[in-house]
Design a protein that fits this description.
The structure holds two protein chains of two kinds. Chain A is of the alpha/beta class. Chain A has 13 helices and 18 strands. Chain A folds into two domains: 200 residues, 3-Layer(aba) Sandwich (Rossmann fold); 111 residues, Rossmann fold (3-Layer(aba) Sandwich), CATH 3.40.50. Chain A is globular and about 70 Å long. Chain B has one domain: Rossmann fold, CATH 3.40.50.970. Helix content of chain B is 32%, strand content 15%. An eight-stranded mixed beta sheet of chain B has the order 2-1-3-4-6-5-8-7, sandwiched between helices. In chain B, helix 2 links the parallel strand 1 and strand 2. At the A-B interface, helix 3, helix 4 and strand 12 of A face strand 2, helix 3, helix 5 and helix 10 of B.
């Protein structure tokens, strides 16, 4: 893995007062994103607007496409031409991107997609929050595959995790998602952007061997194949069809097995290198409150109240939601009395917690249909219930 | 026989085809192969650096072209070849990007991308093989099926008005538009050469027989007959008003080069406009001049 310093042209070093949407754009620019294709959709549009304003002075292209189908197709093309690429969207636009998210997975193309989630289904709540695309991000395209999804809890993390998303995308040749939401997207806070030399970036895994020996999908030791770009004289082929190491279509069960297992293994077997969690007071906890994104900040209030009431509560924040931190949840399930899990949906990531708990501990879900964050008291009551 | 007396049995297109993938999947009598021949001819005659020529296809019979040409080639999703090509071109303006796909892919499911890429004058070349139906899936009615023609999802004949693709491309802003039949080999080759060297959105429609489905269902004879029928029923009319290019069932086909005009490409316009508005703050993007100038 080759690491390089950020290009100072894209880094707006300093202390800023930014909302999450603008911070996503700054994260992308700092990470070296020089191609942005997008389509306006509330509550994510500000990211596209900032890109359109900033990228001409940095050296890159912004294009507003005709729809989200076009945005993501352009992204994959641009990535294969060697650029770091990014788009932003929300619910309905995210749904439109699903088919080509599968193509990006199949072609093993590094791309970054930020989803500023709003309430759904359908047009739902364009201007109000939700965390309802957390399963769609994992399963939304057809077939079996793996992706990486991160969940920031502040505008600062929108910046930090967008850089992280680019690094992971390059490292694993996979679409990486920054799953934020309307609340954080429109919340203004202090965002500190470090000097370029303090931002470490992962360079694409460029192939350097003899041209005639190059195979676009031959896994390296870390399971990730080397990449090349269009125009370098390799005369390579790639397809959305099930393919062999040469990138040639092979339509049979044997090749499918190798191809699909590879897409899954390169993420799952590297999960320990990807997963980031934030834990507090978990060692002696009887109850562990799991949360991600904006809900983590609401849960704090409930946790503080519960601690005052003498309940031993720990917190676990999922910075990485996918791949899911299966091992850690299994460990904790053996030790604690209950998990309490608030999320702004009617039961999505909680299904993973239930699966990993294997009936060894209670899992209490605190659902919310979207439109606003939880009332901390609802979470507090769930904690109290769990502690009984 | 001495070695030097032996006949060289090399296919003249071999350098530009993935011979390890031949035989191809196209039916005997299909016109796609002849369009590929014209394409490889055009590439050979052009002075382009072939390492910089990229082919993007969508889904369908013609969508398989990307898999057979020995160039950097992408077989993408249904309808999305044009925006994929847009991404490639904008991310590396040095590339000469060719979309090679069918009528269903480009004008049916991908119609919106097609008109928008033409509107922006994206500097790409589109070769659209029009066989009047969705062939890969078994001969369903398409946005190009002539009125009255039979298709597997129009078993009583098609009653939907079809697109005239050159008219659509013209209305959307394309800077180069031509139509030929697959048997116009040299003319297709020349048009592809012109399109490749054109700065701007170029569109070439090639009418080809679909022998297994469209022809059989409509009892139009074998592939060779139909190739010849289209050829014999075509009338060359360069510069024809694109409003007059409708295709009726087994009717006369107006072919020729209809549009060849100059307009700034997306990147030319972007560089010029942003350079003017932002002055020194603007970082010029991509190449302004290339060897096609």
């Amino acid at each position: 893995m080759k690491k390089v310093k950020a290009d100072p042209k894209g880094v707006l070093t300093g202390s800023h007062y930014l909302d999450g949407d603008h911070s996503l754009a700054e994260g992308g620019l700092a990470a070296g994103c020089r191609f942005f294709a997008g389509y306006p959709i509330t509550p994510s549009t500000e990211t596209a607007e900032r890109f359109s304003e900033r990228i001409p002075t940095v050296g890159g292209v912004f294009i507003q496409m005709e729809d989200e189908l076009g945005s993501i197709a352009a992204l994959i093309g641009a990535s294969w031409a060697g650029k770091k690429v990014m788009t932003v969207t929300s619910g309905p636009g995210f749904s439109l991107m699903m088919e080509n998210i599968g193509l990006a997975c199949m072609m093993e193309t590094p791309i970054v997609i930020a989803n500023v989630q709003r309430g759904g289904p359908s047009t739902g709540l364009p201007t109000l929050t939700g965390q309802q695309d957390m399963m769609q991000v994992r399963w939304g395209s057809h077939g079996d595959y793996e992706i990486i999804a991160l969940s920031p809890d502040s505008p600062q993390e929108c910046f930090d995790l967008t850089i992280e998303a680019f690094n992971l995308a390059e490292m694993f040749r996979v679409p990486v998602f920054v799953m934020t939401d309307e609340c954080i997207g429109h919340m203004h806070e202090k965002v500190v952007i470090p000097p370029a030399e303090e931002i470490e970036l992962v360079e694409r895994k460029w192939y350097t061997g003899p041209k005639e020996k190059y195979l676009p999908y031959k896994p390296d030791k870390d399971l990730v194949p080397f990449m090349i770009k269009a125009g370098d004289g390799y005369r390579f082929h790639t397809t959305g069809l099930t393919r062999d190491e040469r990138g040639y279509p092979v339509i049979n069960a044997e090749c499918q097995d190798v191809c699909v297992r590879h897409l899954i293994d390169k993420i799952n077997k590297n999960a320990d290198k990807i997963i980031k969690l934030e834990e507090e007071e978990i060692d002696n906890a009887e109850i562990v409150v799991i949360s991600y994104g904006i809900t983590s900040r609401v849960a704090i209030k409930a946790v503080q109240k519960a601690r005052k009431a003498g309940i031993k509560v720990g917190t676990l924040r999922l910075i990485t939601v996918w791949p899911f931190p299966e091992i850690r949840i299994k460990e904790l399930a053996k030790k604690i009395k209950a998990f309490v899990f608030p999320e702004i949906n009617c039961g999505q990531i909680v299904l993973e917690v239930e699966r990993c708990s294997w009936g060894q501990t209670q899992v209490i879900h605190v659902p919310h249909c979207g439109g606003w964050v939880h009332d901390p008291d609802d979470i507090f009551h769930a904690i109290k219930e769990a502690a009984k | 026989m001495k070695k030097e007396d032996q006949l060289e049995e090399k296919n003249p297109m071999e350098d530009l085809l993935r011979m390890d993938r031949i035989p191809h999947i196209w039916c005997p009598g299909c016109g796609i192969g002849t369009v590929v021949t014209s394409f490889t001819e055009a590439l050979k005659k052009s002075k382009l650096d072939l390492d910089k020529v990229v082919v993007v296809s969508g889904i369908g019979c013609t969508g398989r072209v990307a898999g057979y040409v020995k160039l950097d080639s992408f077989h993408t999703t249904h309808g999305r070849a044009v925006p994929f090509a847009t991404g490639l071109k904008l991310a590396n303006p040095e590339l000469n990007v060719v979309v090679f796909s069918g009528d269903g892919d480009i004008a049916g499911i991908g119609g919106n991308h097609f008109i928008h890429a033409a509107r922006r004058n994206m500097d790409i070349t589109i070769i659209c093989v029009n066989n009047f139906n969705y062939a890969m899936t078994g001969g369903q009615v398409a946005a190009t099926t002539p009125l009255g023609a039979n298709a597997s999802t129009a078993p009583y004949g098609n009653f939907e008005f079809p697109f005239s693709l050159p008219y659509l491309a013209d209305a959307a802003g394309a800077t180069y538009i031509a139509r030929w039949t697959a048997l116009h080999l040299r003319r297709v080759t020349k048009s592809i050469q012109e399109a490749l060297s054109k700065r701007g959105f170029s569109f070439i429609e090639v009418i080809t027989p679909c022998v297994t489905l469209y022809a059989r269902r409509n009892r139009l004879g074998d592939g060779l007959n139909l190739l010849k029928y289209y050829y014999d029923n075509s009338e060359i009319h360069h510069g024809a008003d694109t409003r007059t290019l409708d295709i009726s069932y087994q009717g006369k086909l107006v072919v020729g080069k209809f549009v060849d005009k100059e307009k700034p490409t997306f990147l030319d316009a972007m560089n010029k406009h942003l350079g003017k508005v932002l002055g020194d703050k603007y970082v010029l993007y991509g190449r302004i001049n290339d060897d096609r100038d």
